[in-house]
Design a protein that fits this description.
This protein is mainly alpha-helical and about 270 residues long. The longest helix has about 35 residues. The chain contains nine helices and four strands; from the N terminus they run H-H-E-H-E-H-H-E-H-H-H-H-E.
Length: about 270
C-alpha cells in the first residue's frame, strides 16, 4: 500500500462465522501488513493449546464489513427484473452520495495541504515532543516487563531525530502543510490517520505517540473453560448457572446427532425461479 487512502479488499468465504471473527482476522492482517507483527502470529493465535486465550487488540472497523453473498447447495433464489431494477437504483444513489462525500473530503485535504503553511520551528518542536512521549511510554513498558534498570538511550534517539530534522530543514522559516506531514512521516513513521479503524490520531483511541505492543506480550482474555468454571463455581440456583445448564448441558448433542442434523439441513432446498 503506497498511501493511507489506498483500499484493501479482503474476501473471506466460510460456512459459518463466529462473533467478530472477520473483524479480528482483518485487524491481524493489517498489523502484519504494516509490519507490526510477523506473519507467524497467525499460527500462534490459531494454536489454542499454546494460546488458549485471545490477546487484547482492537478489531478492524465495522464500516467496511459486508455480507456479500449467501449460497445454499439445494436452494435457487428467484429475482425479478423489477426488484433488481429497484435495488440497482438504490445502490447507485448510495454510491453517488458516498462518492461525492469522499471527493469533498479529498478536496478539503488537498486544500489544507497546499494552501496552509506552518513555522519550521513549531514543526520541529511537535516532532520532538512526540518522540519524547514515545520514549517515556517505552520506558514505562520496559520497567513493567523487566523491573531491572535498563540502559538510557534517550540521548541517542533525540540526537538521531535532531540530525534527521537538520537534513530536512528548509531554507525558509515556513513550510507547506503537505511538506510538514511528510517530515513527521519520514522522521517518526507517523501519519495523521491510519486506516483499519486503528484509532490513531486526535479523534481515535490512540495518539501519535502510541507504541505497538506485540500481541503475544499483551494481556489475555478469559478462556471458555475459565468462564464455565466461574459459572459453575457460583452458588447453586443462580441465574447464570441455570441459564448455562438450560442452554448448554440439557441441549448438548452427540457427534452423531450433530452430523444427522447438518446432513438433514444440507438436503433441504427448493426453487423460486
Amino acid at each position: 500500500i503506497a498511501s493511507p487512502h489506498d483500499m484493501c479488499h479482503v474476501e473471506i468465504v466460510g460456512n459459518a462465522f463466529l462473533w467478530h471473527q472477520v473483524r479480528c482476522i482483518v485487524s491481524v492482517l493489517f498489523n502484519i501488513g504494516r509490519q507490526l507483527e510477523a506473519p507467524t502470529i497467525v499460527q500462534q493465535l490459531l494454536d489454542v493449546k499454546a494460546n488458549p486465550a485471545k490477546p487484547s487488540y482492537e478489531m478492524a472497523s465495522e464500516s467496511g464489513l459486508v455480507l456479500h453473498d449467501c449460497a445454499f447447495r439445494h436452494l435457487t433464489l428467484g429475482r425479478t427484473v423489477r426488484n433488481l431494477w429497484g435495488a440497482t437504483k438504490a445502490l447507485e444513489r448510495r454510491w453517488e452520495l458516498h462518492a461525492v462525500a469522499a471527493e469533498r473530503a479529498s478536496d478539503a485535504l488537498e486544500s489544507v495541504k497546499s494552501h496552509t503553511e506552518v513555522r519550521w520551528m513549531d514543526l520541529a518542536d511537535f516532532v520532538e515532543q512526540i518522540a519524547r512521549d514515545r520514549m517515556r511510554k517505552e520506558k514505562k513498558r520496559a520497567r513493567s516487563a523487566h523491573p531491572l534498570p535498563a540502559g538510557d538511550n534517550d540521548g541517542e534517539e533525540m540526537e538521531r531525530i535532531g540530525r534527521a530534522l537538520d537534513d530536512l530543514a528548509p531554507e525558509t522559516a515556513m513550510v507547506s502543510w503537505a511538506s510538514a506531514i511528510r517530515v513527521v512521516r519520514d522522521v517518526l513513521g507517523v501519519q495523521p490517520y491510519m486506516p483499519n479503524g486503528s484509532g490513531q490520531g486526535a479523534m481515535g483511541k490512540n495518539s501519535e505517540s502510541s507504541l505497538h505492543v506485540p500481541f503475544m506480550e499483551r494481556s489475555k482474555g478469559t478462556t471458555y473453560e475459565e468462564k464455565v468454571k466461574s459459572i459453575l463455581s457460583l452458588a447453586c440456583g443462580t441465574k447464570r448457572k441455570e441459564r448455562y445448564e438450560e442452554n448448554i448441558v440439557k441441549k448438548r448433542k452427540t457427534e452423531e446427532e450433530d452430523k444427522a442434523f447438518y446432513d438433514h439441513m444440507l438436503r433441504q432446498g427448493g426453487s423460486s425461479v
